[in-house]
Give the backbone structure.
Amino acid sequence: MKEALIQKEVLILDGLCAGFPARRGEVRVLDHVSLSVPKGKITGLVGESGCGKSMTARAVMNLIRHPGRVTGGRILLEGRDLLSMRKKERRMLQGREMAMIFQDPMSSLNPVMKVGKQVDEAVLVHEHVTHAEAKRRTLEMLEAAGVPDPERRYHSYPHQLSGGLRQRIMIAMAMVCRPKLLIADEPTTALDVTVEAQILDLMKEMSAKGTAVLLISHNLGAIARVCDDVSVMYAGKIVEQADICTLFDRPRHPYTRGLLSAVSSLRDGSEVLSVIPGHVPNLARLPAGCSFSPRCSCRGKECMEKTPEMREISPGHRIRCLWEEPGKKPGEKELETEGLAAE
Amino acid sequence: MLRKKEKQIVSDFEHRKADPAGPSEISEAYDLGEAETFGKLMLRMFRENKLSAVSLLVILLMILCTILAPVLTPYGETDMDLLNRLQPPSGDHWLGTDEGGRDVLTRLLYGSRVSLMVGIVPTLLSMVLGALLGVMAGYFGQWTDTVIMRLADIVLAFPSMLLAMVIMYTLGGGLFNVFLTLTLMNWGSVARIARSETLRLKKSEFVEAARSIGVSKWKIIFRHILPNCLPTLIVLFTLNVPAAILTESSLSFLGLGIQPPGASWGLMVNTGRQFLYNAPWLSFVPSAAIMVAVLSFNFLGDGLRDVLDPRLRKQ
Amino acid sequence: MKRILQALLVLLLVSLMLFGLLRIVPGNPVAVLMGEHANQATIDRLTAELGLDQPIHVQFFRYLSGAVRGDFGTSYSLGKPVSGLMGTAFVNTLLLSLAAALFAWITGGLCGLLAAIRKNSIPDRLFMGFSLLGISMPVFMAAMILQYVFAYWLHWVPISGTADWRSFILPAVALGWNSAGSIARLVRSALLDTLEEDYIDTARAKGLGKSGVLFRHALRNTMLPTVTMMALQLSALLSGAVITETVFSINGIGRLAVQAITARDIPLLQGTVLFSTAIVIFGNLVADFLYTVLDPRTRKEA
C-alpha cells in the first residue's frame, strides 16, 4: 500500500526542517514541511514572500546558502532519501532526475556563456555523449521548449534574448535530461502577463508528458491556471493542503481565505481592497501559539496558546488551524456573525 | 514664505525613506548623513571593524606626537653631533643617529609633520577641486563635461609617479610645491567619481522636485548634490591620504620632493640609503613609519567605507 | 575604432600638456646646461641649433612630427638620440615589468582565489593580511628589504644591475609586491560576489561539482573586473619601476627619467614620460579589447 504510494509520488517531503544559526539557538525557516509531488501532475506551493517557499525548493536541490542548512526530516525522490546520500551521489541526481528553474531568467543564466552551451552542459555533466550529440539534444529540447529558430538561438548570449525566451531556455536546460521532477521557483514573476501564460502552458505540457512539477508562486492566478494540488505556506509551515478545486471553492484556513479574498476583491473591482492586516512575522520572533494568530480575523483565545497541528478535515484536505467550523472561533462557544459571515 | 515651502517640499522628498520603487540607495546614503550622528556612526564602525578603531587610535597618536615633538625629545631637529655619527639604537638615541649625528627618533617625529601634512592637505585640496569640477561636469553636461573630463583623462593617463616628477621638475622642490603637485595629480580620479555620483543623483526625485519648483542650479548643486556625495567623498578621502603619503615619500626618496635640511620620512630614507649596509636602521625606521601610517589610514578607510558607503565596496 | 581615436586624442593632449609643462620652467635651458661661464654667443648658437628660438607652437609641431617618426630629439646631457637611449632602457623596463606583472598576477590571483574559496579560514586571513601589507608598503621599502636580506645578507642574488636573469628576481618581486596585494583583494571580492550570483545556483542545480562551477562559470565572470584592474596596475607598475630601477641600478625608462631630471635634460625627460604614458594608454586599449572578448554584453550586435 505504502509502496504503491511512493511509486506514484516522485517527491515526498517528510517533516522537512531548515534553519539558520542565530545568536540564540536558530531561526527555523522551514518547520516540518510535508508535501508530495505526484507523477504527471503540477503541485503548487503558495505563500507570501519570505514564507519559506524558495527555501523548500532550495532544500530539495541542495542549494541552501551558508549558513542555512537542513536540520531535520526527509526528502524522498522516488523513495530514495536525498539527505542520507553521499554528496556526489546526490549531485548526480541533480539535473538528471530533478531540475529547477528560477525566478529571474536573466540573472540565472551565465552572461558570458552562449545559452546553447549552457544547455549542452546539463547533458554533458550527466551523460557520456559527444559534444555533437549534446548539441543535437539541446536543439531538440529548445524546439520542444518553444524557442523559435533554435539553431540561431543556440549561439545567442542571454542578454540578446527576451525574458520569455530566456525562461524557455531555462526550461530547456532543466528538461534536457528528461528529469522526473521539475521545480519551478516563481518562474513567471519576472515576465509579462502574456508570456507568463505561454510559460505556464509549456509547464503544463511538460507535466502531461509525465514529469512531476512543483510550482512555487505567490501568484494565485498562475496556481489556479495549472496546478492539480496546492499547499499554502505561512511562516515556514504548511497551513493548508488540498486539491485545486477544494482549495479555491472551500478554503478553510483563515490565511488561505485572506489570500483568496485579496485576489477576488481585485477581480470584482470592489472599492475596498481586501488585504490581510499586519505583516509577515519575523521568523526569529514567532508569536506563541498559531503563527498566524496575530493577523487572523477569527482568532480565539486558544489560538495564542496552542500550536495547531496539521489535521485532515476531509479526504485530501488538510489544515493547520484550530478552527472547527466556519464562523466559530476556537475556544469560544458563541457564533461569530461578523468576520467571515459571507460564508 | 515661498522659500519655506520650497524647503519643505524638497525635504519631504529627501526624507522619503524606503520607497520601494525609488532608488533606495540614495535615501540610505542620505539617511546615514542626516539621521546618524557622527558619534553613533563611529561607534558602529568600531563595533563592526575592530582594526579601524585601532587604526584611528594610531593616527591620533601620530598626530599627538607630531604636535608634541619638541616636548618629547631632548634633541633639536637639526642638532648635529659629529662625534656620534651613525650610532645604532641605544639608551640615549632610541632609534640611533644618522650621518650627521642627529637623533633619528627626533627627525622621525618632526618628519611626521611633513608626512602627515602631505597626506592630508593636498588630498583635501584635490577633493575640493575634484568634487567641484566633477559635480559641475556631471550636472551641466555638454561642453563643460567634455572639457573637464578630457582634462581628467589626461591627468589620469600618466603613470602617476612620472607626472609627479614632471610637475616637481617644473615647479622645483619644497613643501609647497609638493602640495601643489599632489593636488594636480589627484583631482582627476575624484572628479570622475563625483561626476558619476552626480549623474546618479541628478535623476533622483528630490533633485527633480527641487528643479521643478525653480531652485537655482548652484543651489541644487551646493544644497542637494554635494551633501549627498559627501559619504562617498569622505571614504575616498581616507583612501587617498595614504596614497598621497606614499607618493610624497617616493618623490622625496628620489630627491625630488622635500629638500634638506627639512625632514620628511621619504627624505630620511633617501639619505639613509647610502648607509643601507652599515646603518640599515636609517632607512628602515622611517620606511616602517610610512608603512604604519599608510596601513592605519587604509584600515580606517576600509572601516569607514563599510559603514558609510556599501556601494564603494566593489571597487 | 572609436576607442582607438579617443586614445590617440588623449595621447595628443598628453604630449601637448607635457610639452607645455616642460617649457614653463624659467630660464633658457641651454644657459642652464652650459653653466655660468658660457658665453652668450655660444648659447645663442646652440639655442638656434636646437630650435628653441622658434615660437612655442612651431617647436611643438616639430617635436610631434619627429615623435611620430620615432625621433624624440637629442639628449642634452648624453648627446645621443633619445629614441636610441630609450630603446635599450625599454628592454630592461619591459623585462622588469613583465616579470613583476607575472609575479603579481600569479601570486595575487592564486591568493585571492584560495582566500575566496576558503572564506574566513586561516589562509584567507593570512593572505588578506599580507595583501594589505603589500598595498601599504612603499615600493622602495620592499625593494630595500629584499636587497638587504637576499642580496647583501644571504648572497643569493646580485645586489644590482642587469647582468643575468637572477638579478631581475628581486626587483620584480619588489615591484610586483604592491600589485599582488591589490589583485589578491580584488580577485577575492570579485569571486565572492560572483559566487553569490543566481547563475551559480543554476550551475549547481545542473549537477556541476565545485570545480565545475568554479572553473566553468565563476572564473570567467571574476576575470571581468580583474582585467580593468590590470590596466590600472600597468600605470602603477611603471610608476613603481622608477623607484625599483633606482634602488637596483637597472638602466630602464624610469631611471632614465630620474637621470634626465637631475641633469635638467628636457628632451630625455619628455621622451621617457611620453613613451611611458603611451604604453599606459595602449595598455588601457588592450584591456578594453580584452573586456569585449570576455564579456559578450559589451559587444555590438553583428
